[in-house]
Amino acid sequence: MEFLTTSEAADYLRLGERKLYELVTTGAIPCTKVTGKWLFPRHELDLWVLSGLARPAGMLIAEPPPVVGGSQDELLDWSLRESGSGLGSMSEGSMRGLERLQRNEVMAAAVHFHGLDAAGDASVEALRAAPDLHDAVLVAFVRREQGLVLPQGNPKQLHGLTDVLALGARMAMRQQGTGAQMLLDVLLKRAGASTRDLRRVEPPALTGPDLAEIVRAGQADCGIATRAAARSAGLDFVPLVWENFDLAMRQRSYFRPAMQALLRFLSERRLRQRAEELTGYDPSAAGQIRFAA
C-alpha cells in the first residue's frame, strides 16, 4: 500500500495543506498517524473521492441492499452482528456472491477463490475477470484454515486426500461455485484425481456448518470445511491449507456508513479475541485493501 505525506496528499487532491488538516481534524478523510506524522493511503484517497462522485440524474445507480453475500463464515456472521453495521448476510458461495455483486444485489461478497496457479491470487484474478466490476475493491477480512472435517477420534485415520482416495472414504460435498469446492477440485487435480474418483455424499451441503453436521450425523466420513466449523460441531480436523477470506465490493460502497462500521470493527481487539476463541483464524491483515481496480 502506498502512503502519501501531507504535502503529497494535498498536491494529489489539489487541496491546500490547511484544508487538508481541517479534513483530518474532523475525521473526514482516511489517514493514519505514525511517529507524529500524518500519512494518507493513496488507494483509500481514491475511494474517498469516488464515494462522493456526483452523477447527472440519468446516470444514477441504485444503491445495493445492505447485505453481504457470498461465502458463509462464523467469524464474519458474528462481526456483522457485533459491529452494529446493520448489514445482513446471504450465504450462497463465493461465485454466487460475486455474481450478485455484479448485478448490484448485495453491497459486498465474501469470497475465497482457489485456482491451480499456486503463485497467483485467485480472488484478485476473479475480480479482474468480472466484466461488470471495473470499480472493484478487495478488502482482507481474515486468513483462515481449511481442511478435512472428521468424526471424533478420526476412526478411519484420514490424514489427507490421498487417504480419502485410497480408502474409499465417503466424502460430503459442497455445491459448485463455493470456495471449498474449488479448493477440493484443485487439491484433487494436483493429486492426479477428480471428484469422480470420490465416494461422494449427495446432495451437496450449502455451508461449511451444514457439511460438518453431515459428518457429525455419520452420513459421511469427511468433508472440506474450516477449522472453526469443525470445532463448533465437536469434530476432528486435519489442516490442508491457509486461505485468504476477503470482502469484495464496489468502490462507491466502501465508504457507505454500514460498510465503514464493519471495517472500523475489524481493527478492534474484540475481533482478535473472538478469532482466537473460534480457532483457525489469522486476523492480522483485517481491513487492509488487497486490490483496487
Give me the Rg, rounded.
Answer: 21 Å
**Sheet/helix structural class:** alpha/beta
Unreliable stretches covering 5 or more consecutive residues: none
DSSP strand content? 15-25%
Beginning-to-end CA distance, first to last residue: 14 Å
Q: Total number of helical segments?
A: 13
Helix content: 25-40%
The geometry reads as elongated
Total strand count, please? 13
Mean pLDDT: 91
Largest sheet geometry: 10 strands, mixed
The run of helices and strands is EHHEEHEHEHEHEHEHEHEHEHHHEE
Briefly characterize the structure:
This protein has 293 residues and is an alpha/beta fold. Helices cover 38% and strands 25% of the residues.
What would you note in describing this structure?
By secondary structure, the chain is an alpha/beta fold. Helices cover 38% and strands 25% of the residues. The protein is built from 13 helices and 13 strands. The protein has helices at 6-13, 17-25, 42-51, 74-82, 94-102, 122-129, 161-167, 179-190, 208-216, 227-232, 251-254, 257-265, 269-278; strands at residues 3-4, 32-34, 37-41, 67-70, 88-89, 108-111, 136-150, 170-174, 199-205, 222-226, 236-250, 281-282, 289-292. Strands 4, 5, 6, 7, 8, 9, 10, 11, 12 and 13 form a ten-stranded mixed β-sheet that branches. Strands 1-3-2 form a three-stranded antiparallel β-sheet. Helix 8 links the parallel strand 8 (170-174) and strand 9 (199-205). Helix 1 (6-13) crosses helix 2 (17-25). The longest helix has 12 residues, at 179-190. It is elongated, with a radius of gyration of 21 Å. The protein starts with a strand and ends with a strand. The mean pLDDT is 91.
